[in-house]
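Model it.
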Amino acid sequence: MLFVPRNGKIIVMMKCRKLLTVLCLLALVCSLCACTRATLVPVLPTESADTKIFEIKSNSMSPEIVRGDTVVIRKCTAAELQVGDIIAMRPNRNNENSLLVHRVIHICKRGELPPNLGGVAPGEDGADEIWIKTRGDNADMDDPPFPESMLYGIVVDVIRTGNRA
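Modeled.
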């Protein structure tokens, strides 16, 4: 509807219904923008019988993995590992939630280890058991070797949620 007042200026007046329609469209566009932003937030994978998710509590693997990052760990055997893999081991076998996440630097049989590191003479009981030696990327020393029975799994994904500043 057009209205021409006495001063000659044309004023366009919208009916209330048209104004309401415009406001509804604006609200729809705003909500779509909000939904689009929400989908950009990383979604954590779900856990399964052989896949677990843990938050990293230290910087021993910095800069590769930092405190606050989340790792996805798949259970595996020592036969599946290679030097350079990042793994999780249970330093305390009674606490499944206490894990040490470090990089594999050596895989060997227990009979190949020196006695001061838990090794036994070839042919003795346990000499063929696989042992793993690790080290944190940010650590000065290697971790003591541990038996395959303490291996929890291999890190298959890192969700970078930690502070890298």
